């Protein structure tokens, strides 16, 4: 049986595409392996959102190309956003790559290569841990943020039919998934591309999903502040299976920078929304990301942002430096802060957030919290690690547990016994 190894880079949305690619190979008779040395075919599923992602993609391609010399690899395939964006430009630079496929044509090109048919949209080779899985409810993006290349790569926003989403959700439930994570470029935009006459929205989709399935946890990612409405907040407040977790990239708070980014709403409405979320949804956890060093960002803009972060006290927060992405409206804007200043500002915010996080987590000591056990602990001082309803996988903190009797994939009640800057420590309640 021929073998294939897949390397997934980038976001959870891209990972789902990679899992579908893996399933296409599986249906064509390939065995999926994790050891690249033992793979006849290597697929590198890439990201190209920002410069760091592009550099990571190039490094992964070069590393996999070496497998054609040192391993049994006979064919190297590059898929995803980097391929979609640059394949015509870089083909000669990477002669080891046998096939370049993009985000729109991968199924057609790979099916031709493998002499296989199309596969149902919800069929995927699920990655571990099985208990936590993502479900993509839309493709593309119809926003015009001046720094973002995604609409050019992925096209305009296209909501999936409700029936298809429910079918995939039920399939995931049958596979043993306990935490379902809803993703899209903007989950809150769901249904808006279909027009008012179609009568659907994210809140309506969630209501249908909750009725049709029994997932203990349903988590939403990538909320846009312009589309978090009252009906959605009422659903969060009333439905205990919805994790009260608000992953909402705000990007900045200074109005002049938000306008240059082509972002809305502006600062006054953003503050009002955050206050409303915390007032309407008991125990809400706020997570956001900010872009630092956007053109014309002055020290006064940065001070406004730090004061905002001190005021709101986000539960989780990330920052990344702006990079001028080719093809975006902001790529050629003048008056960019120096790289050293941007790095210093990023460090300042993360030091501030570290203190905020430490104080917030310390207040959880002594409380009882639901924890999903992910698997063996990365820290050898503990047996297992998991997460609370207020933490998403990979990007947020962990709960470390010494008890050796936990079962991966289960949701337990744990007493929080300690806290660090970003993580909690707990013990199961017998």
Would you give an account of this structure?
By secondary structure, the protein is an alpha/beta fold. The protein folds into three domains: 3-114, 3-Layer(aba) Sandwich (Rossmann fold), CATH 3.40.50; 132-362, pyruvate-formate lyase- activating enzyme (Alpha-Beta Horseshoe), CATH 3.80.30; 368-428, OB fold (Dihydrolipoamide Acetyltransferase, E2P), CATH 2.40.50.140. Helix content is 35%, strand content 20%. It has twelve helices and 18 strands. Strands 2-1-3-4-5 form a five-stranded parallel beta sheet, with helices on both faces. The chain has a five-stranded mixed β-barrel with strand order 14-15-16-18-17. A three-stranded parallel beta sheet has the order 6-9-10. Helix 7 links the parallel strand 9 and strand 10 (217-220).
User: What is the C-level CATH assignment of the largest domain?
Assistant: Alpha Beta
**Helical amount among residues, as a percent range?**
25-40%
Question: Distance between termini?
Answer: 47 Å
Reported for the largest beta sheet, the result is:
5 strands, parallel
Strand content: 15-25%
CATH homologous superfamily classification of the largest domain: tm_1862 like domain
The CATH topology of the largest domain, please? pyruvate-formate lyase- activating enzyme
The appropriate CATH architecture of the largest domain is Alpha-Beta Horseshoe
Strand order in the largest sheet = 2-1-3-4-5
């Amino acid at each position: 049986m021929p073998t294939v190894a897949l390397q997934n880079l980038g976001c959870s949305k891209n990972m789902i595409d990679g899992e579908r690619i893996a399933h296409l190979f599986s249906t064509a008779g390939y065995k999926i392996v994790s050891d690249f040395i033992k793979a006849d075919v290597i697929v590198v599923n890439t990201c190209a959102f920002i410069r760091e992602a592009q550099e990571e993609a190039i490094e992964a391609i070069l590393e996999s190309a070496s497998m054609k010399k040192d391993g049994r690899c006979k064919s190297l395939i590059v898929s995803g956003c980097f391929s979609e964006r640059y394949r015509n430009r870089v083909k000669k630079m990477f002669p080891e790559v046998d096939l370049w496929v993009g985000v729109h044509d991968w199924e057609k090109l790979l099916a031709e290569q493998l002499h296989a048919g199309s596969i149902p949209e919800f069929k995927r080779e699920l990655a571990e841990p099985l208990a936590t899985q993502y479900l993509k409810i839309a493709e593309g993006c119809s926003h015009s943020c001046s720094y973002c290349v995604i609409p050019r790569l992925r096209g305009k926003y296209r909501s999936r039919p409700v029936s298809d989403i429910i079918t995939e959700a039920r399939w995931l439930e049958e596979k043993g998934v306990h935490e379902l994570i809803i993703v899209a470029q903007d989950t809150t935009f769901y249904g808006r591309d279909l027009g008012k006459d179609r009568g659907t929205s994210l809140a309506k989709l969630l209501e249908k999903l909750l009725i049709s399935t029994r997932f203990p946890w349903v988590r939403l990612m990538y909320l846009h502040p312009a589309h978090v409405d009252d009906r959605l907040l009422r659903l969060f407040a009333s439905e205990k299976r919805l994790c009260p977790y608000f992953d909402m990239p705000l990007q900045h708070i200074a109005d002049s920078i938000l306008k240059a980014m082509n972002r809305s709403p502006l600062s006054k409405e953003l503050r009002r929304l955050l206050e409303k979320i915390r007032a309407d949804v008991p125990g809400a956890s706020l997570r956001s990301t900010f872009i630092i060093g956007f053109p014309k960002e002055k020290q006064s803009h940065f001070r406004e942002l730090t004061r905002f972060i001190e005021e709101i006290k986000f539960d989780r927060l990330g920052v990344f430096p702006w990079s001028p992405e080719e093809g975006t409206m902001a790529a050629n804007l003048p008056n960019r802060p120096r790289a050293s200043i941007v790095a210093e500002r990023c460090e300042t915010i993360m030091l501030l957030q570290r203190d905020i996080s430490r104080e917030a987590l310390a207040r959880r000591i002594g409380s009882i919290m639901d924890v999903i056990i992910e698997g063996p602990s990365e820290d050898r001082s503990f047996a297992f690690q998991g997460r609370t309803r207020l933490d998403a996988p990979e990007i947020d903190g962990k709960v470390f547990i010494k008890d050796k009797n936990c079962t991966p994939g289960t949701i337990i009640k744990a007493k929080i016994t300690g806290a660090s800057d970003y993580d909690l420590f707990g013990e199961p309640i017998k």
